[in-house]
């Protein structure tokens, strides 16, 4: 059904042309069944993949066409998921005044956002759920949804997760969604969607796994990089151990991060600790290790430690040094490494990292998660022992929604999200985060 909608209303169709004309001229709704959700790309690739997945699910639930904006390299990374149409938002010309032209400049603030309109009283929702627009007294042609944690994501933005506010949004033909989060657990907690989502996903912990595998199809160059690296390094071993090391703060002492990784590997008994290079009776090397990190330093230390003990070797596909923006080759390497990690049998991931979430979700493997130290405070310098921060098995393979709303719209107060439903729990790596289990 979604595929048919994407094809009927997507770029290149008469319906799309008319919808853009109405958007640009500020005209209101026309009920031809074509409404749109534009996802505004920003942040790293892991964040983007989780946000696209969330946007897609929201588009399905609200019967909107999903269009992806701004990821200049999206076409280098992914094949089109919907047959006979494109999910990439066509860019209006440089001199166009279309709201679609301004999306990349949103950066978190607009009078045309749901939060700002609620704050200013331009739209109001009464206690019994009635929506009233004022100045002008009708739904606008478009609204921004600001669903990204941090500043600018306050009480009014979070009302997105209320049933009455969903009715309000249903009246707006174009929604522009700005998020870097996996908001799916929040959609399960949004009353008009709960029943449908529960029916759609009998296994609540498989949402990203199914959606991610449906939506993301790496392009041939990316897939070639994945399969050729896999064949030459990992395929021959019986047990592939993937270690994803993501360091968020420059001040983080590398030695402490390394200690945390090694203590996790030892504590979970993931690799042989004796020097006999293991192999099974058939001669297949028992273990191979895949390390992904922006730095080669960790890989070198892990190879020094385990190189002689794991017959399948220790491997790192790339060490990019630092995160880069708008660099297709860089993103292609990042994507191929997420897929390589997803082909491992066991995963050790860095808490808080969406890069790791994508890998574990695609893999359908519950990782051992290394917690991010208490914001890498002075504890490390004061000699905090990594053994005091053991890695923990994630409760499910689902990504963590880092900044959910705790507000129960019907009750009018905050609730403990850990206790609302049996299939939503706190994440082991992000204190306020929630995930499907
Ligand atoms: P997060 O910041 O860890 O949540 O993950 P994101 O994927 O959103 O952003 C981090 C970005 O840094 C990635 O998209 C890559 O561009 C880069 N990066 C981080 N870790 C690695 C890595 O292990 N390998 C490669 N190739 N790139 C990485």
Instruction: Find the count of extended strands (DSSP E, 2+ residues).
Output: 16
Strand content: 5-15%
Count of distinct structural domains: 2
Q: What percent of the residues sit in helical stretches (DSSP H or I)?
A: 25-40%
- Gross morphology is globular
Helix- and strand-based class?
alpha/beta
Question: Main β-sheet, in a few words?
Answer: 6 strands, mixed
Overall residue-averaged pLDDT value:
92
CATH topology of the largest domain: Rossmann fold
Radius of gyration: 23 Å
- Termini gap: 27 Å
CATH architecture group name of the largest domain: 3-Layer(aba) Sandwich
H/I helix tally: 15
Structural descriptors:
2 domains; alpha/beta; binds guanosine-5'-diphosphate; six-stranded mixed beta sheet; 437 residues; four-stranded parallel beta sheet; Rossmann fold
Briefly summarize what is shown.
Keywords: Cell wall biogenesis/degradation, Glycoprotein, Glycosyltransferase, Golgi apparatus, Transferase. The chain is of the alpha/beta class and 437 residues long.
Layout of helices and strands, plus pairs?
Blueprint: H1 2-9, H2 14-25, E1 36-40, H3 45-62, E2 65-69, H4 74-77, H5 114-120, E3 123-125, E4 131-133, E5 142-146, H6 155-158, H7 163-170, E6 174-178, H8 184-188, H9 191-200, H10 207-215, H11 220-234, E7 239-244, H12 254-267, E8 287-292, H13 297-306, E9 314-315, H14 328-342, E10 346-350, H15 354-363, E11 368-370, E12 392-393, E13 407-408, E14 413-414, E15 424-426, E16 434-436
Parallel strand pairs: 1-2, 1-6, 5-6, 7-8, 7-10, 8-9, 10-11
Antiparallel strand pairs: 3-4, 11-12, 13-14, 15-16
This protein binds guanosine-5'-diphosphate (GDP).
Enzyme class: transferase
Family: Belongs to the glycosyltransferase 37 family.
Pfam families: XG_FTase (PF03254)
